[in-house]
Amino acid sequence: MIIKRSTHELDLDDQASIRMWVERNKKSIFFYQDTSEADPFILGIQTEWQLQQMIRFGHRSLIAADSTFGIKRLKYPLCTLLVFDSRQHALPVAWVITRSFAKPDVSKWMKALHDRARSVEPGWKVSGFLIDDAAAETDPIRDIFCCLWLPKIEMWLSTIGTVPLASQEASGAIEAYHVKLKAKLFDDSHLGALQRVDWLVHKLTTELHSSYWLDRYADESGSFQNVKEEYIASTSWHRALQIPDPAVTLDDQDHLFAKVLSQRDSNLARLVWNPGSEFAFCDCAWSMQGNLCKHVIKVNMICENHKSYQPSMSYQSYKEILMNLWKKPMDDSVSLDLSMAFTHHMLDQIQKLVELTNSSDIGTVVNNLPLKWVSKKGRTYVGKPSSTLPLPSSSKGMKTAAVRKKNRKRKRLSRLR
């Protein structure tokens, strides 16, 4: 009897199978370290398309690290680096499979990833870095990416008072990626494949990668309308936008709770506690599982326009940064330049969001983004020609061009005569 081996098992031994996969897919590997007595296993995966999206949406923007997935169920935990696309949806641009979170190991693959992006676009720079573990090593982020930004979910209380917090929109986008990741990976849990790395790599680089590629293509090209609609409504933030304002009732006296009427059943109302706070929670099943639901986001949207409610902690952090910049002495030229650069950067981001909100066709907005991917050798900024000009291949080609120019000149002179 012949048993056909699965598509992901290149060898019965998992480590040997991974070595074979790495050898066959070198272009999709930005860092690889095999297991040894001194070094732990580290596998960094990034396809060419993911590299393009990281440079495109990560430049002067945010990158998020989702590092807590599969700690209990997978053989090696999965760390995903995410950027936020033109709709502020989380887009996976790199995967790191490893059990080590030690500073030297994190620095290795972070530097390799950063150098890979800079080799394609030397001016590429990240404005902020989101992490989901307050105990994570932050020095590599500061040293390599020169930035740090921490979200509110799964953070230690001791960290909240010292660093800025991510917005609900970013948290909702990361959560949507979590949902999709679980749906793709855990449907094969009954096969006992969770303890094989080659199975995890196969799932990431085929099903999950192609799914996000199709979402982006459908959104930018306008094709596959059903895929596009599902992609747009995949985050709690976008689902919250579909709830009308009159459906929300606030407790104006004590500000303890808020009610959100269901759009499907008018007799059903969801109760949201701590409205207007990053720590608000709802009595719906999705929120009770520890997720950020659309009811909480909608209530917090309403509370932002009420003076009786305190602004969000992320807004307070941003306001504090602006106030510190404003208090800088005018004779400090370095601080003044930094303040002006930060202000112009924020103005550009706001203008892009306004343009995206008012546009009926997202494809026109995407085509006007700063980084244009024309070809592998001619990536340029809009309005700025490529720094490398084509050179003649030989002196013979130069002579041919000179003869053609001379012939054109003779033709013009003959017409004048």
Write the layout of secondary structure elements.
Blueprint: H1 14-24, E1 29-33, E2 42-45, H2 48-58, E3 62-69, E4 78-84, E5 90-98, H3 103-120, E6 128-131, H4 139-145, H5 157-160, H6 168-185, H7 197-221, H8 225-232, H9 236-240, E7 248-250, E8 257-261, E9 269-273, E10 281-282, H10 285-288, H11 294-304, H12 313-326, H13 333-358, H14 362-367, E11 371-372, E12 380-381, H15 395-416
Parallel strand pairs: 3-6
Antiparallel strand pairs: 1-2, 2-5, 3-4, 4-5, 7-8, 8-9, 9-10, 11-12
Helix pairs in contact: 3-4, 6-7, 7-8
What's the helix count? 15
Order of helices and strands: HEEHEEEHEHHHHHHEEEEHHHHHEEH
Class per helix and strand makeup: alpha+beta
Mean pLDDT: 75
| Proportion of beta-strand residues | 5-15%
Main sheet: strand order:
1-2-5-4-3-6
Largest sheet descriptor: 6 strands, mixed
Write up what this structure looks like.
The protein has 417 residues and is α+β, with helices and mostly antiparallel strands. It has helices spanning 14-24, 48-58, 103-120, 139-145, 157-160, 168-185, 197-221, 225-232, 236-240, 285-288, 294-304, 313-326, 333-358, 362-367, 395-416, and strands at 29-33, 42-45, 62-69, 78-84, 90-98, 128-131, 248-250, 257-261, 269-273, 281-282, 371-372, 380-381. The strands form three sheets. The chain has a six-stranded mixed beta sheet with strand order 1-2-5-4-3-6, with helices on both faces. It has a four-stranded antiparallel beta sheet with strand order 7-8-9-10. β1 and β2 form a beta hairpin. The chain is globular, with a radius of gyration of 26 Å. 27% of the residues are buried. The model is unreliable at 151-165 and 372-396 (pLDDT under 50).
